[in-house]
Each structure stands twice: as C-alpha cells, then as structure tokens.
Amino acid sequence: MAALPPDSFHPDKTSDRAMTRRTFLRSTAALSGLTALAASLSPLRELGDFTSTEEFLQKYYKELNPDEMAKVLKRIERDVERQYGIRPHVRDLKPMDGVEFVYCLNLTRCIGCRKCVHACVAENNLSRSPEIQYIRVLKLPHGSLDVEKADHNYTTKQVPEKGFFYMPVQCQQCKNPPCVKVCPVNATWQESDGITVIDYDWCIGCRYCEAACPYWARRFNFAKPEVPKERVNPNMSYLGNRPRKQGVMEKCHFCIQRTRAGRYPACLEVCPVGARKFGNILDPESEVSYILREKRVFIQLKEEMGTSPRFFYYFEK
Amino acid sequence: MILATRNYLRFLWRCGRIAFVGDWRYYAWMAVLTAITLLGLNAYCKQLVHGLIVTGMSDEVSWGVYIANFTFLVGVAAAAVMMVIPVYIYKKEELHDLVIFGELLAVAAIIMCLAFVTVDLGRPDRFWHLIPGLGEMNFPASMLSWDVIVLNGYLLLNVHICGYLLYCRYQGWKPAKWFYIPFVFIAIVWAISIHTVTAFLYVGLGGRPFWNSAIVGPRFLASAFTAGPALIILALQIVRRVTAVPAGAGTTSSNGNLSPRMAVRRDATLKDMEMLAQHLPELASVPIVDRLSSLPGATVSEVDQGDVLLQQGTTDNDAFFVLSGRVVVKREEGGRVRITRTVGAGEQFGEISALTGTPRVATAIAQEPTRVLRMPADALRMLMRNPRMNDIIRSRMTERLMITDRGLLILRGIVQVSMLINVFLLLNEVFKEFYSGNLHVASSHYLFLGLHGYDGLVPWIWTAVAFNLTAMVLLVLPVSRSLRWLNVACVLSIVGIWIEKGMGLVIPGFIPTPLGAIVEYSPSLNETLICFGIWAFGLLCYTVFLRMAVPILQGRLTKANEDHPEFAESDTLLTTPAPRPPLAAVR
Amino acid sequence: MDSDIQPPTRAGRIQTNWILAAVSATFLVMAGLFVANLWGRTAATPKVPLVDVQFLDPAPWRQTYTDLAKAKEDLSDFDCYGCHEKKKPPVIEYDEKHNIVLPKEHSNLKLGHGSHNRNNVCYNCHNEQNLVTFQARDGRELKFQDSTALCGSCHGPTYRDWEAGVHGRTSGYWDRSRGELQRLNCANCHDPHSPRIPTRAPAPPPRGLHEPATGPTPTAH
C-alpha cells in the first residue's frame, strides 16, 4: 500500500519520450484525418454554376418590387444567353382581372397521339435528358376510370386502338391545391387567375408537393436540365417556361407565358383532334363556359379528394 | 458575468479536449466512424454536384431511404426522452442517470434527422428560406414547417436540459429545479409532438391512400416506443461495458484494501459537524439541537489511500460524509467494475443503503488520505428532517452513474408493451386494407404480396413482420428477463421497425403512383453511402457526448480539478480511475 | 498502493500507438481514393433522342379549298368541269352490295361517310346540276368555301359546338381583345368522303429517370 511519489504521473524519461511519441502520432492522425476530409470534398470542384451570389440572395417573388424584378429578369436573360447563346425575352406576366382559367378535355375525341406532351416540352423548355414531361397520357380500357388499369408506356403502331380511350393528365390547377398547402416555404401558390405557380428561385427541393399531388403532376429536376440550343423557346416568363435549375420542382402552368398574353396553351394548339379547350370561366361566352353549361357529363379527376380541379374531362356522346 | 462566461467557456474547452483523448479502443472506434462519415460526405458532395439523380429516387418514388431514416430517427429521438416519464412522474430512481443518456441519444438522433432532411433537399443552399423572419415559412399550413419548428425546438430543449445538468454537475452545483424541470415536462409533451407531426406529414396527404390513415400516428408512436428504448437498452449496456474493467483483470486488487488500517477512529463532535458545514452550507440551517441529537453513534475515521470504506453487497446501516479528501465509488456488475462517481468534501455516500436497509450497491475506496464522518441511519434521518438537508441529500442520491439490470428491465417493460401495441396496430391496418379490398389496397398489395409482377418490397416487409413477431414473443416470455435474450429481442425489434417504417411505410406510399404507374425503388450505392455516413456521424456525436458526460457524471471531470486536466483525461480513463492528482500529495 | 490508479500500462500505450498509426494510414489512403474518384460516379445522364419535329407541328393535317385558294396553290382537283361535261351529271355506279364503284379518276377517294352505306349518294352533298358547288339538305347551293355550312346542315349539334369553338381545333387568342381566334373548318380535320379521323403513330412514350438509354421501353404491366 505504498503511496506513489508525487510525480508518479510522469515516472521516468521513457514515459516522457512515450508521451512525445504519442503526441506526434495523435497529430499525425489528426492531420491525415483533415487531409481525408479535404479530399472527400474534392467532387465539389465540379460544382460550377450551382448558384451565384445574386441568385443566392434573391428575395421571394412576392417581395420583389418592380425595380428588383426588372433586375432579376435581366439576370435571367443574361444567364440564359450565356448558357444557350440565345437572347430570350423574359417577362413577369401578372394575372388579369376578371379572368379565371379553366381547361376542358374531351375524352371522346382524344386519340392518345401524345402530340400535346411533346409540344409542351418544346414550348416550356423542359429538360430532354433526363426527360421531364408535364403531361402523361393514360391508355385506359373502355368503361373504367381506374388509373391503376392504365398503360402509360403504350407503343402501339397506331392510335387510337379499339376498346381503349386515352386520358392525358397534367396539373389540374386545383382550387384547393394540396401542393400549395404543404410547401414549407411558400414557393408554390395559387394566383388569382387560378394558375398554381412555382418560384423556381425560391423552391428548396424537398419534394413534399410531389408527394402531396393526387395527380402526379409535379416534376423534380433530379439533374441539371438539358435543353438543346436549337430548340430553346426564347419567349419566356418568370413563373413559366424560363430554364429551371437542378434541384427544383416544376409543373404545368397552363403555358403562363402564352395564356397571360391572351393566347392558347401549346398543348391545345397542337391537338390534332381539338380535344382540348381552354378559356376564361368568368366569361360566359368562352368555350369552357359553353362546355360546362351544355355538356351532360364532365368529371373532375379524383373528385373525392376535394381538390376541386379547374381541369374538366368530358364526354361527347 | 464575464467570469461566468469564462467559466463556461473553460468547461466547453475541457469537454472538447476530452473528446480527443482516450484509449486505443476509443481511437479505433472514432477512426472507424470518422472514416464512414467521410465516405458519406464524399458521396454527398457527388450528389450535390450531379443532383439527386445519383440516388435511386425518381418522380415516381420521390422520397427514399433518406426520409425513411429520418422517420425512424424522429421516433428514436422521441422515445429517448420518453424515458423521462418513469423517472419524473413515477419516481423510478433506477432510471435517473439513464435519462441523461436518453436525452443525449435524442440530441444525436435529431442531429441525424436534420442531416437526413438536408441531404434530401434539392437546393440545400436555400435552407435559409425556411428560417422565419429571414425567409418565408408556410406556417401553420405546411406540416413540414411544423416539423422544422418542433425538431429544432426539441433539439434546443434537450441540449438545454443535458447541458445544464452536466454543467451543474461539473461545477458541483445543485441544479435549480425551475431551470430544468419545466423544460423536462415540456420535452415530454414535445417528444410526442415531434413524432405525431412527422406522422402527420404522411397522414395529411389525401392523394396517398396508403398513408392517409388515422392509425399512422399511433403506429408511429408505438413503434418509436419500441425501437427507441430498445436502442437505449443496447446503448446503455455498451456504455456500461466500456466504462468498466473486468473485475480483477490486470490489477492486483481492484477492489482496494479489504482490511483497512483505520488510522484514527473516534466519536464525532460538533466541531466535525462545523467542518462538514463548511463544505455543505445546507447543514448550517440545521439547528444545533438537531445536530447534537444526530451525534450519538457517529464516528470520524481517517483512512489512507486505497482503504475500503464500505463493500458492495454487505449490509450495514451507516451513511458517510466526506470531511476532507476524496472517495471513489465503484460498482461491480456482471464481472466488471465501473466507477459510478467520486465523492469530495461535503458530499455523502452509502446513504441509500442506510435509508432503505438494502445491501450496499457499490464499494467505496479512499482515493487519497481521507477523513469521513460516519453516521447511523437514524442520525441521517434526523438531519434530513430539515428540508434543505433533505433536498440536498436527496438530489445527490441521484447523481451517479448507475446502470442497473433493474433499470434495463424497466425499459424492457416499455419495449414489451409498445411492441404488443405496435403489432396490434399493424394487424388493424392490414385487416382494414385487405378485408375491404377496395382500390386503395394497391400499395399494401404491392408491399405484402407484390402487384402485377413487381415485388421488390415483399422480402423486406416479411422480414420485418418475422422480426417483430419474434421480438414480441421473446419480450412477452420471461426468457427476456435475461439480458442476452433481451438484447436479441431489442436488435430484432430495431431492425424490424426500421424496415417497417422505412421500406415498409415511406416507399410503398409511392407505389403505384397516383396515376397507377409502378416504378420500383432501390437505393443507389451513393445514396447508401450517404446514409451510412449520417449514421456514423450520429454515432460519432453520441460517442463524443458520452465521452464528455461519463467523466462528468463520475465526478472526474469537475471544476475542482480544473488545474489537473490529466486527472480526467488519462488514456485509460474509461477502464481505470485516473492517477491521484499531485494536489492530494501535499498533505 | 491500489494498482489500478497507476498510469496506463506499457502494453496499452503500444497498442494505442499502433492504432494511431493505422488510423493515419487509413485516412491517407482514403484521401487518395477520394481524389481518384473511383466509385459512386454517375454515368452520364442517358441521352434521350429528340422527338421528331412532326409531333410538334400544330398545322392541320388537311388543307381545305379555302386554304389552297388562299395559298394560291393548285386547285385543279376542284375544277370538276375540266373533265366532266356541264349539264350532264355523272351517273353513280353501284356493285351488288350497293357499294359505289369509283371510276379510276377518283380512285384516290376513300368512301366512308356514314355507316351501312346509308350515305352512298354523291349528290347528298355535291350538286349534280353544278358540280363545282354543294347542295345542302334545304336545297341551298353552297360554294366550296362554305363546306362547313354544308356539314352543319346535317350535323346540327356538332355545328353548334363548332360555332362556339368547342368542336374542332382552335388556335390563336382565347382573349379576343388581344388577337384573333383562328378556327379551322371541318375539312381541315375530316376527309369529307371518310370523315372518321384516321389512326396515326403516337409520339414516343415517356422514359423513366433511371431507364437505360438504349433497349426497349418497358411497358407498364
């Protein structure tokens, strides 16, 4: 039970040397750890134009005053020109008073040719690789609206096929949109003309809206979108078809760059059978008012969800 | 104020320092975790550059293992704090020390949760859009904004509670009840809220019938209260193991000198009481009359370094106060010895057996020449009639690192009941889905039986079901009163619930899509590396937290030995008590 | 002296040193591997071939007499009396199943207007007295330019829809105050002799994010 001498903690010189060696080894381990840490970050060299300071600090859409908005639009034009070599015309079109958009689609007419899908891709500068499409055409057997019976990837030589009908689905521009409700940062909202829009510069890419949408209408930029230069549509709008960035959501916006300028959406104009109808439901003379007044059967997809879509499917006979 | 800040920074500095020293096992363990964390970080950098296309996710299955792990870990975090209930509401003292470990686990789990959410973001650079005031928060409409608030709030609550209790222990202060008890109760309610809110993330989505079911919330809680305490049972045993050395191994007499040469032993006097009062100000409030009447039978001993003052397992009824010097209290359990605390001047030991008449739970050995006041149980009770004395003694009764089998078995009770409820709720869900057999059964059909030839999740869910049922049977049977079988049951339930909540809940919600397409999901290599990286980082955090908390709880990292950091930081800290500080050598 | 308060054993120290050395080595190797970027690289995003521009073309697939006239194109097909004699209505020949037997000059026509041969009389629409005009059911004589009115004389409800812009294709401006609504005529889409819209090849199907660049596109169940 002999007590150790007071300096027992450093009993001899050997121990001192051992401690030095230990300190050295510890520092080596720490240093090599830091080296590995630095090396592990090496992929970031390719980060490129992930975000610019200007873009990083950009304010929320609804808080931008007209001057700031003008600057933002200039910045976007610059970015697009740098990337695609085309000077675009980027506008921030506001909703019109007394206008509420409604889309009607005639299921009797649709032949499932998917022209709307690709016209939309072209009009809205959607990424070609990886492929992003706002419209999905479902091939359904006669007699059922059960989407689980749908074929999304039909590659038949000729459409329409006997015994089937075709139902294109895109953003339904709900009156009670679940996607808007769930967005944690208000990056998506419904405008007074009924279009649910996305501020691509505000979206954080959590994809909650994608999970919430009962129509599978939202798309995420899993990679940097790629649009061939020769197919860029230079008529752009902030909330519409301007090129998106990697990691943000997008979806059908009723071709806001066209419809807010009074024109028809691209999918409507390309439809070879005139199955698509679009207009202002507040105008009793509009096509859509006529359809909802005159046609016997029209349906809102998944009506039981209570989402109250502004997209109506109807039958001719 | 400046002094207080300096003291606090000093405390943080010492805690930080201690995280970097340890024995070879500690270095090896930390190095493995660091390596895996770096692999994950590297994988995340690749994801940041190339986008989430490097994961297995797609527009069809837009959430994957990140969110699955997030959901599981929110449950762990919630359950870790629920252990507080038995302690504070039912006064289960066995669990008292475990609460800190539970809360530290909660902190680590929340850190992992936040990491998993961050790696799931497409634009992590825009995180500031979520900060209220700076960005735009869609509160209260978005359940995700609720989740951001409750998770960060929960993190702060637990950091506050743990940090405060540990800092008090370090300083040798008695924690002010008003400064932490209210937060403990808030944390209990908050714990339920974080998991309920996380369940609501899914439940609120009308477009996803697989999730849109009121039972998901209760199922989440039940599975969390199974997996969380199960994880703690395992974690505590690991802590218990690495903070102890095998009894007798590598040392000649790890239990100290069994036949102490009592240098001096005499009857106690009022003067000794006054000496004690210098270190224990509460004693000053005890009237002289009461002090006098507690003297009969009390003795003062002066012992040498290494002398055993009381022996674990014996029954005698005396309590001890340290008048000067320092005493190490060790406990032997399962063939291993661990320091449960060290006791300095003014502090007591042996009082639990004295008050309850139970056998000694630990052995007390003088760490330096020490003078103790030895007092029969009746005398202690006399002193404790004074409310302030009662308070201080009772509060110190709980400040010790004890991981008893009884404590673990109380946790077993929680796991047992929760697992029964969990399996019951799962059966409810399965019945409702398959018996009604409407269109909405598609996801469940895909999960359990496969759909249209796609059956990627079928082996997963049946593994989970088998694990959960086996765990349930084991937990219900008395066989799981033995730790070995309890551990098997815990591992099975953790894995089972991880699958059930991850692959079994998040993924099938996306299959088929709302438009009826079936696209299967399996995590990519890069995605898996990120997940392992985050888990390793979480474990790294938890290890560091324990590395700091254990010596504080053991009383080895205190303000008192601020000038002798080696006392707390010896390489073999976790296995043997530190060498005697030179301070003590000066008599 | 209680031996477990001695400094760490020599064996323990050496073990720690070895571990620290191994840790350093491991980290340095990892650093090298990170820089070499050996795993987790994504293959370049599969290039999806660009869609054929014909699928993007909004132009109607038929041209009417009006379109041709406007474009000053060859209208010889509409010059009936280039071949036929005036005041001598051509006689319609039928086979035993009451199908019209077309002369070889008209073999490009596919007849299919109305099922069960209900509409197998050319002069239901063409004016037998003046082949370069139509005759409506009410006896009106209509020019080729007014074909839509001719269709409307039988297809009342459809004509009503068309007038409202609801049947058939439109393009241009929904907002009439900003621009013109361009409406097509029946014959822009329907072949008057066989009005059912012919089948056509659909545009390519969607391609999943992780689908391989080549190989067949899997069909859903």
Describe this structure in words.
The complex is a heterotrimer of chains A (317), B (587) and C (221). Chain A folds into two domains: 53-91; 101-314, Alpha-Beta Plaits. Helix content of chain A is 27%, strand content 15%. Chain A contains nine helices and twelve strands. Chain B has three domains: 1-51 and 523-580 and 583-587, no CATH class; 65-243 and 404-435, Up-down Bundle (Formate dehydrogenase/DMSO reductase fold), CATH 1.20.1630.10; 264-397, Jelly Rolls. Chain B has 20 helices and ten strands. Chain B has helices spanning 2-18, 24-50, 65-82, 84-88, 96-120, 143-171, 177-203, 216-242, 270-279, 288-293, 351-356, 377-384, 387-397, 405-436, 442-448, 458-476, 483-506, 525-554, 566-569, 582-585; strands at 244-246, 264-267, 299-303, 308-310, 318-324, 327-333, 336-343, 348-349, 363-366, 370-376. Chain B is elongated. Chain C has a domain at 64-189. Chain C contains five helices and six strands. Chain C has a two-stranded antiparallel ribbon with strand order 1-2. A two-stranded antiparallel ribbon of chain C has the order 3-4. In chain C, helix 3 packs across helix 4. The termini of chain C are far apart. Classes of the chains: A alpha+beta (317), B alpha+beta (587), C alpha+beta (221). Chains A and C meet through helix 1, helix 4, helix 8, strand 10 and helix 9 of A and helix 1 and strand 5 of C.
